[in-house]
Amino acid sequence: MLFQADFKLTMLATLPLLQESDFPPLARQQLSILQINLGYRCNQSCLHCHVNAGPNRTETMDEATMALIPKVLLARSVNTLDLTGGAPEIHPGFRSLVRQANKMGVKVLDRCNLTVFYEPGQEDTAEFLASQQVEIIASLPCYSEQNVDEQRGKGVFEKSVEALQRLNSLGYGMDASGLKLNLVYNPQGPSLPPSQVALEAEYKRELKEHYGIIFNDLFVLTNMPIQRFGSTLRSKNQFAAYMSLLKQNFTPGNLENVMCRSLVNVDWQGYLYDCDFNQQLGLPLGSEAVEADKTSSAKFHLRDLLDDGLEGNPIQIADHCFGCTAGQGSSCGGAL
Q1: CA 260, CA 151: separation in Å to the nearest integer?
Q2: Which CATH architecture fits 3-325?
Q3: Is the pTM higher than 0.85?
């Protein structure tokens, strides 16, 4: 069952508009989170998706690269494995990787779109995640059916609600179970998200009252001006105005807590980036933007983490970084 938003979009590049930047320099700290993009295939195709994922994407991590992940977790004493995509659960090696990390005592995060539970072969995925004590970070950009279906495709909200109710029945969202269920909010358009604290209270009230759903935390994320969302801004002549909004709301205090300082992002080929956004812009860790004809040998790979934690390396910055530092800040774990 595929869910696709009703939009057609000619992708317009945003990197040329972001590279000339006055964002402050940053350096990497000790690695604590390994974020793995297992591939770009997804059963959904969402307007705000910075990965440009969808049902027709074929990129997927191979077995040799997958085999490096547990070795790196051990070599660098990483305490958190953050699995993303696409829909990471679709990858045939997803469950084996989760089991290995769990045995090592590494906390596993699954960035789940919820509707993946209704795909062929995923019928028991929710039960598997619960059995492995996986922390779920689930996309639900609004508690309104109309708003969610406009962003993510017709029928997504109904299936998302059913999936959340199923997760609750397994103990997710309940403090005593230890099974954490977090939701993710993105604004629908070119605006900063509201207060995370206030919106979380609103989400909890609405979802509990109307659907009996409970969850732990709400992560409020700023839309990044790249890929589908950035292209949409350009096509509507809103790109400059949105960038101005981000810059005008720059909060220097957020620099200490941006996720890229302690996280390494890994693409489906095993190459390293300071964050998932840089991956989608083609800005590898420690390098300039990669041109189409540049050899891959100059880029850091997952195997390099077996010997080097990369502490102190400069972080690749561009104007999209203002999205993580505007207002209350934004990271993979919500407001900073």
Answers
A1: 27
A2: Alpha-Beta Barrel (3.20)
A3: yes
